[in-house]
Design goal:
With about 170 residues, the chain is an all-beta fold. It has no helices and 14 strands. The strands form three sheets. A six-stranded antiparallel sheet has the order 1-3-9-5-6-7, with no helix packed on it. A five-stranded mixed sheet has the order 2-11-10-4-8, with no helix packed on it. It has a three-stranded antiparallel sheet with strand order 12-13-14, with no helix packed on it.
Length: about 170
């Protein structure tokens, strides 16, 4: 009997750099696209070792404190097959489950983060699908002062308390 799964969608977020911790939330759907009932294990991985939480219906299901792909906490009510990983529970063909991934950017984070969510059949890890959440930080422009003098314009840009000439 053919088994299959689909994880959707991919996300691409751009946020301002911040001196404070930022939490971004991404909604995903895991769908049993096979012809038989199946349980799908859920894994996540952060490219920068960030804290990632898995939330279903407002309940914390699992947390990976350092984004290494190994869950540090799993709510036992969401581990229906008892293997120590959160899973979807039994999904019949075409049945879906919605979940949220919460990714925490530490204060001062600068760069790009790629968080991957993977769902695979408890019958075989080769039956899998994944989605990617890409976060890109950009410098926050606090103040822009434009000084116009003919024949040229000078731009002063204030970033992190300092003016730069542009």
């Amino acid at each position: 009997m053919p088994w299959n799964v689909r994880v959707t969608p991919n996300h691409n977020e751009t946020v301002n750099e911040s001196g404070q911790e930022q939490v971004l939330n991404f909604t995903h759907t895991i769908t049993n696209t096979g012809l038989g009932a199946n349980i799908f294990e859920i894994k996540v991985k952060s490219s920068n070792g960030l804290d990632v939480k898995l939330i279903i219906g407002g309940t914390l299901v699992a947390e990976d404190y350092n984004g290494d792909g190994v869950w540090d906490y799993v709510n036992p009510n969401y581990d229906t097959d008892g293997d120590g990983n959160p899973d979807t529970g039994l999904l019949t063909p075409s049945e879906s489950i919605n979940l949220n991934l919460s990714v925490t950017l530490p204060a001062g984070f600068n760069g790009t983060e790629n968080t991957t969510i993977l769902a695979y059949s408890f019958l075989s890890q080769s039956i899998s699908s994944h989605a990617n959440d890409k976060i890109t930080t950009v410098p926050e422009l606090q103040n822009i002062v434009i000084i116009v003098t003919l024949p040229l314009a000078i731009f002063l840009i204030k970033r992190k308390g300092r003016f730069t000439l542009s």
